């Protein structure tokens, strides 16, 4: 009798384990939350109205698809549940947001593993334990990531060997970084028009955006606001390749980075960045200037650490720009002036309040011609630039003559406004209008794999574009011309 009881107990235990997750069959089925409530054997249940609950681990297998329907607006997830997407995942809400959140302020996990065609529009993700994106095609548009903890990852979203897209998203009040990748994996995310605020609230030594080496495509961080809450350890953006595992290319353009420990840190080997038209303001949360506080820091292990700076405003930081060890920094040449504004970056690192526009604590020379240093007096400019004459033999020299004697804000605005493009409606179903403020411009549109899918000419004013033959997803448009500084925007085509 005891043996029978034991066998029954084991069978019950195995039955319980079998019910702890549900895996879709992988036969090409498209599921909604409602159909999952019918088919998932209790893993997903209908609550009321447009509300559903996920009770156990859920896997959408390869070939299958999960679609959040218009009538489904709240998904409650039990604490510690993992949702795995190996097929595809689509949510295209535009009139209202879907909320996916853990019950009772617990935390859940979301994993994309070799997933394809994942387009998530209008979702508020709350109380996540960390999202992992592994070799997957994922686009987040107008999504929120709030109150994530660091139980599973050190960031709200981590990626490996892929290039996720974030457009118009908000990352706020997360324990760790907002977006991150490992130091030994490659990936090139696209982060545009997003808002980052008050992340790394545990005050770890992390930036809000913490990226490792890039892949073949460029890392693009364009038009975002990265705002800290004066935590002493939390930085703005860091891109790092400590082992030279990739050949990282970075476009950092049109961002406002403020109130962090530091603004932007580029560190390691084989990184090449274009840093243009950004605002680096009041990144001085670290009280000890020896531990940080730079608007921009270029920390190179060899001279293949490259950075080109044009038309940036760098003010209110403890250090304007710091260069460490080796680098190849271009802040302006005789033929291509920098038009950067570097002024009023104060700290008391020498026992008294001093201004450090640039501190060249490296062995490399820096060309910094055609910038504004907060004064029209050459002696005062030299006084805020620290290089070979101040630091001694072996340190690099900063070439800053000739310099701008007037604030070039009007010049910078002229460059930035050389050509403006607006897409409407956006999102759209393949037909849209591009308004261009310049004529004789060429437009090239690429998919998320970097493939050219459309090219044409734009006239000044409204231009009608028809891309109805393309699949739904995120696309990237670049407008260029003989007298036009390249302008980029994103286009979202929905089903």
* Strand line-up across the major sheet: 1-5-8-11-14-17-20-23-26-29-32-35-40-42
| Overall pLDDT | 87
Q: What overall geometry do the principal axes of the alpha carbons give?
A: globular
Structural class: mainly beta
How would you characterize this protein structure?
- The protein has 495 residues and is mainly beta.
- It is built from 5 helices and 50 strands.
- It folds into 3 domains: 133 residues; 234 residues; 70 residues, Immunoglobulin-like.
- Helices cover 9% and strands 46% of the residues.
- It starts with a helix and ends with a strand.
In short:
The protein has 495 residues and is mainly beta.
Task: List the SSEs and their pairings.
Elements (H helix, E strand, L loop, with lengths): L1 H17 L2 E3 L6 E2 L1 H7 L4 E5 L2 E4 L2 E4 L4 E4 L5 E4 L4 E4 L2 E5 L5 E5 L5 E6 L4 E4 L1 E4 L1 E7 L3 E4 L2 E3 L8 E6 L4 E3 L2 E3 L4 E5 L8 E3 L2 E3 L9 E5 L7 E4 L2 E3 L7 E7 L6 E6 L2 E3 L5 E5 L2 E6 L2 E3 L12 E7 L4 E6 L2 E3 L3 E7 L2 E3 L10 E3 L2 E2 L6 E2 L2 E5 L3 E2 L10 H7 E2 L1 H4 L6 E2 L9 H8 L4 E4 L6 E6 L4 E7 L4 E7 L2 E6 L6 E9 L2 E10 L2
Parallel strand pairs: 1-5, 2-6, 4-7, 5-8, 6-9, 7-10, 8-11, 9-12, 10-13, 11-14, 12-15, 13-16, 14-17, 15-18, 16-19, 17-20, 18-21, 19-22, 20-23, 21-24, 22-25, 23-26, 24-27, 25-28, 26-29, 27-30, 28-31, 29-32, 30-33, 31-34, 32-35, 33-36, 34-37, 35-40, 40-42, 41-43
Antiparallel strand pairs: 3-4, 38-39, 44-45, 45-48, 46-47, 46-49, 49-50
